[in-house]
Fold:
Amino acid sequence: MRRVVFACAALVVALGGGVPAFGQDAGVPPQRAAAEGTRQSRSLEEVRQVLERHKGAIYATYNQALKRDPTLGGKLVVEFRIEPNGQVTQASIRSTEIVDADFLAALKSILLGLRFSDQPVPVLITSYPIDFLPH
Structure:
């Protein structure tokens, strides 16, 4: 059985500095909310929910890559920029153990297709770890 595992915590950084959004004693990576006149920002939960809704597309893309290389697997960290209108305008792979360029390009394309709710919040750049397990 092949699995895609989304980590339960992500590093969320809004442009313009900010303040800690979650307690560091809880084992959550440091996070910052926006400081553009407000402390509101998109929540980690919203990011997780949107990624969960697109897990099927990510899983299908991974299965296609596994046809080329059945041993393909590993951890990676994606980073994407969410505009206040909910559109993802930039996506990249920050780090990866996976060397399949076609798979990584397809994953970036999926990220660029993510849609978040339109909110009066600043631009958000978030990094999110994903484990791809070929077992």
In short: Residues 55-68 form the longest helix (14 residues). Residues 7-39 have pLDDT under 50 and may be disordered.
